Amino acid sequence: MPYHRPEDTDFALWELDVLDRSCPGCGRMMYICDHRYRRLHTLQGPVELLCKLNHCPDPHCPGHTRTESPELEATIAPPHWAIGWDVFCWIGHRRCARHRSIPLIRSELIDAHRIKLSEDAIAGYIQRYQAMLAARQQDPEALRRHYEAVEEIILSIDGLQPEKGHETLDVVRELTGKRVWFAEALLSATADEVGRLIARAKAWAEHLDKTVVLWISDKQDAFVTAIAAEFPDVPHRYCDNHFLRDVAKPVLEADSHAKVQMRKKVRGLRGVERAVLKHQRRSTPDGDASDPAASLTLLADPATSCASEIDTACDVVLDYCAAVRGILNDDQGGPLHPPGLRMAEALQEVRDSIRRDRDEQKGGSPRSNSDGWPAASTGAWTMCEPSTRRSATTSKTSKRSPQPSNPDGTPS
Predict the structure, then answer these.
(1) Structural domain includes residue 310
(2) Is 32 helix (H, G, I), strand (E, B) or coil?
């Protein structure tokens, strides 16, 4: 399917000619018989190639019926491609090295280089890139050069399942040279299928004339059987990652249960945020902040400074709520750093910070700093205004009450 470009695209013209104009058959000078135009995208911008085609002028020469194309054309782009090699390598690097998705690659091409490709076209280029990469990785001569200074090799095999329900991709990797040898998708991890991969790895080792001193895997039954059949004298060890993951399963289960319990206790964040935001909306003055007189009035008013302090306190409360929400949603860490343990430590740090702020606000009194006092209640509370009637009643009662006297009748 032809590639459609905008009509106002400005192409840079590149003229290409044959490097050697001598006819390979008779040695006469070849002449330009035709021109071929190609348009493609490069990282430097859109390019139009003008390829000058040559052939021998002698009708009796075998080279007369054969057309010679410029040799540099293949170094810029393969035939029938809408992009150059540089764009092709850029797409493959983003996919294989940085693991970018196809929609993200497409948007980056448009934003950075103004190259608009469909997702199907990008997927096709990625498939070709993977095929070329696999062919390069499995080149016998390249492998032999890579392992010239290596005497012993260590092989590993593992199955990768991209999504649940899909076939498993079994990868054979050499750990001494840190090189992936080959990979194959297996519909079922049976002993016969896995044995075929192990036999292929043995053939590769024999072709390189290298000794396999160790096999590493997650010790599935099929792996154990196939490796023991093809490499009877080679030790088979457990993968450190799988071993640690299996050992840490009980710890991770207990840690997950602890996270659930902590999330149950730390509740009401959204209610606290709603109350603070509602209080901020009610305390916001209705005056125009651009009026200088209004600004002077607000600065001179003591209630304004009190309101600013309240707003600062509200911001602090919102920051604490955001920090606690981030702590509760953090599930990273793995078996070496359990997320539940990290969550407990982070929540304790938040609690200590709140206690330090409260003690500093109270002036660092012995009562506030004392560890013997019980923890403050976290229940709901309301601020009540002092009752003038209750104060007056108490004052009158204190005036009418008789003075206490001693047993002998004298006033005390």
Answers:
(1) yes
(2) strand
Residue 399: CB atoms within 10 A of its CB come to 6
User: Which string of b and e fits 53-80 if b means at least 16 CB within 10 Å?
Assistant: bbbbeeeebebbeeebebeebeebbeee
Per-residue pLDDT of the chain (412 residues; tens, 9 = 90+): 566 677 777 889 999 999 988 988 888 899 899 999 999 999 999 999 999 999 898 888 888 888 999 999 999 999 889 999 999 999 999 998 898 999 999 999 999 999 999 999 999 999 999 889 888 877 888 888 888 888 899 999 988 776 666 678 888 999 988 888 888 888 777 888 888 899 999 998 998 889 999 999 888 888 999 999 999 989 998 887 777 777 777 877 787 778 888 877 777 778 888 888 887 777 765 544 444 444 434 444 555 556 666 667 788 888 888 888 788 777 776 666 778 878 888 888 888 888 887 787 776 544 444 343 334 333 333 444 444 444 444 444 444 444 544 555 555 4
Domain count for the chain: 4
CB distance 190 to 211 below 8 Å = no
Residue 374 lies in a domain: no
Tokens of 355: 């206690």
**12 DSSP β-pair partners:** 47
CB distance 159 to 242 below 8 Å: no
> Are both 223 and 260 inside the same structural domain?
no
Total residue count of the chain as it appears in this document: 412
* Residue 114: domain span: 83-137
- Rounded to two decimals, the pTM is 0.51
Helix axes 339-361, 302-328, angle to 10 degrees: 160
Query: 């002449």: which residue's tokens?
Result: 31
Same domain, 241 and 260: no
Could you write out the three-class secondary structure of 218-257?
CCCHHHHHHHHHHCCCCCEEECHHHHHHHHCHHHHHHHHH
Is the residue at 407 inside a domain? no
Contact 356, 364 (CB under 8 A): no
Helix (H) / strand (E) containing 215: strand 211-217
**376 belongs to a structural domain:** no
Question: Do residues 129 and 217 share a domain?
Answer: no
CATH number of the domain encompassing residue 175:
3.30.420.10
Nearest-CA neighbor of 54 among 73, 74, 77, 29? 29
* 221-230 helix and 191-208 helix, angle to the nearest 10 degrees: 40
Name residue 49's beta-bridge partners: 14, 38
